[in-house]
Amino acid sequence: MRKSELRPYRWPSHLKKQTSQLWYGCDYNPDQWPEEVWDEDIRLMNQARVNVVALAVFSWSRIEPSQGVFDFDWLDRIIDKLGRAGIGVNLASATASPPLWLTQAHPEVLLRDERGDTVWPGARQHWRPTSPVFRSYALKLCRAMAEHYRDNPYLVAWHVGNEYGCHNRFDYSDDAMRAFQRWCRHRYKDIEAVNRAWGTNFWSQRLSDFSQILPPRFIGLGNFQNPGRMLDFERFSSDALKDFYMAERDTLAEITPDIPLTTNFMVSAGGFALDYDDWGDQVDFVANDHYATPGRNHLEELAYSSSLVDAIARRRPWWLMEQSTSAVNWRPVNPRKEPGQLERDSLAHLALGADAICYFQWRQSRAGAEKFHSAMLPHAGEDTAVFRDVCQLGVDLQGLSQAGLAGSTLAKAPLALVFDYASQWASSHASSPSDRVEHGQEPPVWYRAFLDNAIRPDVLPVRATWEEYPLVVLPALYLIDADLSKRLHKYVHSGGRLIVTWGSGIADEQDRVWTGGYPGPLRDLLGLSVEEFAPMAPGTPGLLDHLDLTNGVTAHDWADVIGHLDKGTKVLASYRADPWTGMDGMPAMTVHDWGHGKAAYLGCRLDAQNLAKVLPALLEALDVADMRSAQGDSDLLRVERVGQNDRTRFVFLFNRTKHPVQVQLEGQVLVGSLASVDGDGKQASLQVNGALVQRVVGHRH
User: Fold this and answer.
1) Phi/psi at 561 (nearest 5 deg)?
2) 248 included as an active-site residue
3) How far is C-alpha 103 from the geometric centre of its chain's CA atoms?
């Protein structure tokens, strides 16, 4: 369960104090453009109904061109222009990348990689989170920014730092070494506890003093790091960056106590840099940067990620700080967004709890590494499809604000899908049964499979209160400690329904393997014991590359060798395989009664399509099959937000397919993007990438 103290929730106030207004805006970099462009920018922002911009994210070298010399004149002028036009400012602390005069004078603030090589200036975020020298300069800048803008009427929020850990997640310098030693001393108190946690008797790694603790620096090609130390270094790295953020936050808050503060997380289906659930306690409101995965899973990955953000935000409105209007610039191939996706994506974030929709950035850059990253105002100017879509979205967000969407909350789903940052870190280390599988890959697969059964899950961090859900799913949750085991036993015994998969409960919180059979402390709950793993190697002749199940699906990458079943454990499916594999007839899918509840186990890895096929049988075996029938059409993603009076609902519908989909209307249509209402007003057609928002008044049946 969550233990840390939450900061009080504070949401930025609009310049005109409209409490029911959604935020709409972008990063804005006026210092990249001649000043004569600014008025044109503001005219077009007003045309698009932009009401907030993030300023000065990478402007340290303009604000402090030399040590101790501050130039706020240009920033004052643009803030005044924006504010007079009704556009609030989300002002950055500007510390994301140090200026060259600082790194020239103090090269000791620069990162060191695992080989000890210096990470030189030339990009961004090349600073050490644990450098006392860098912290001193950064906090002086924060103090100067806060003192200068403490009474500015157009400042609506502080944007502290930027995407912490995007490029400086790991530092292997001596500063980091000393900080890691202090972190371990605080966590373990005595060195023998470290030895037990890391299993240092292996390979003669025993420690006799905290001064012997090193970051996981380069140890030679083909060698393996101590996994316990690796896991703790990842925890430490998240904490070190959080500590730096908190120092900036507290400096700003001391001088401007009435201005809400946040920083932009990077939560996505592949975003594991920091423990964002832990960080969520330390912001006044949660903000996220999300760049959609192009291709087949675009919408599903976006919805999965936003659901997780909503949980990290503790079910309170959150801020989408960055996304792209079209192509990004940092993938090997950068496809543009399809027609309709600009608005569809924003409405999907909105559906899943965002009350602010923003982009990187306003005007597409002419120079620099991100010049081909799309923007609200493209290189081609205002007479473009992108800018017309930007303006239409502004109109639609204004209409949704007038309809009362702001402040409503995401309706609870019928099941919880659990994700854990530490399990992802631990399962991604080398020297595992298969480097083809990691914990973080699996929750998105389950999310899609549930959508294919017309059920939308809530994605929850492992520390969240998932006990209130009738069904909880643990996909490949590698780390399960004694406390989590007790929670799970109590949940099922009290009547909860639980699905656990392969790769779960392998180790405790320190990555020490549970002995006696897998999945460790859950064996009695699941009524089985796994003796060993049967990883599969596609493309390697003579080795197992797949396994067929008796229920008609095919497993890949991983299967468990279940050597024991308790009396009363029911087998739902087994393997069909050649005798030489030793897997023929082996249980693959089971269910077990425990107290007043039931626990199912899936002992092999399935892709989303195959998983969707077995879900009905799993849900039926768990006596929760009724959650399928109430959800409607699997061609649609259906999400509800609930108003504060609980009588008003906002129903969002999204076409998940590559063909038009007919939908039944439930209430007043507020927004239809690539959607048309039929003549009788009872149905609508959603085109590819289409989205529909309705307001329904009255209690839900």
Assistant:
1) -95, 95
2) no
3) 32
